[in-house]
Amino acid sequence: MLQRVYVKQAAVMIGMLILANLSFAETLYISDRLEVPMRSGTTNQHRILRMLASGTQVTALEVNKEAGYTKVQTSDGRDGWVLSRYLMKIPAARDRLAAAEKQLADIEIRSRQRATELTETQSQKGELDKELTRIKTENRKIGQQLAEIQRTASSALAIDTENKELKSRLMAMERDQQALQQENEALKDRTARDWFMVGAGVVLLGIIVGLILPKIRLRKRSSWDTL
User: Fold this and answer.
1) pLDDT value for 96
2) How does 170-187 read in b/e, with b if 16+ C-beta sit within 10 Å?
C-alpha cells in the first residue's frame, strides 16, 4: 500500500513539474554576444552541450535565480542551461537591424514599383487625354457635318417643295394653254364658217343681183320705147 501511495505522490509531483515547465515556457533570444555555451548544468564546470549563436531563438523552461542560469530548449528539441544574463526578450540588435534593412529594402522595392506604376498610369492618362481630345475633335467635326447635312436636307426639302409647286403651276399652265388652243381652234373654225357664210351670201347676192338687173333694164327700155 505504501508503495502505491509513493508512486501516486511521485506521479503527482512529476505532473506538477511538467505543468510548471509548460506554464513557464517563454520565447527568448540569445543576446548580441557572438556565441553562448549551453551547458548540461548550472555551473561553468558542467559540460558544454553546444554553442548557441547570437540571435538564436530558444524556449525558456526553468530559471535558477541563485545560479543565474536558465534552462532552455532549442528549436530542434535539445535542452540545456544558459547564463540568464545572455538572454533577452527581443531579437538581437543585429537581427533586428537585418530585419529592418530587409523591411526597408522591401519598402524601397515597393516604392519603386509604385513609382513605375505611377509613371505608367500617368503615361496611360496622357494617352487617354490625347484620345479624348481626338474623340472630341471628331465629334465636333461630325456635329458640323450633321448640321451641314441637316441644312442640305432642309434645302433639298425646300427645293423639292418648290419643284412640286412649279410642276403644279406648269401643269396648270399646260392645261390653260390646251384650253386656249382649243378655244383658238374653235374660234378659227367659227371664223372660217363665218367667212364661208359671208362669201356664200355675197355670191348668192351677186347671183340675185345678176338675175334682177337684166329684168330691170328690159323694163326700162320697153317703157322708153312706148314713149
Assistant:
1) 66
2) eeeeeeeeeeeeeeeeee
Q: What is the pTM of this model?
A: 0.35
Burial 141-164 (b: 16+ CB within 10 A, else e): eeeeeeeeeeeeeeeeeeeeeeee
Average pLDDT over residues 73-95: 85
Number of structural domains (the chain) is 2
Q: Do 22 and 70 belong together in one domain? A: yes
Please check whether residues 120 and 102 belong to one and the same domain: yes
Q: 41: Cβ–Cβ under 8 A, 6 or more apart, which residues?
A: 47, 81
In a domain, 203, yes or no: no
Q: Alpha helices, DSSP H only, in the chain?
A: 2-24, 93-226
pLDDT band at 188 (very low <50, low <70, confident <90, very high): confident
Percent of the chain at pLDDT > 70 equals 76
Residue 14 covered by a domain: yes
Same domain for 126 and 82, yes or no, is: no
For 207-226, the three-class secondary structure string (H helix, E strand, C coil) is: HHHHHHHHHHHHHHHHHHHH
What is the CATH classification number for the domain harbouring 36?
A: 2.30.30.40
How far is the C-alpha of 177 from the C-alpha of 186, rounded, in Å? 14
Please tell me which of 63-72, 123-132, 168-177 the model is most confident about, judged by mean pLDDT. 63-72
61: containing domain: 2-91
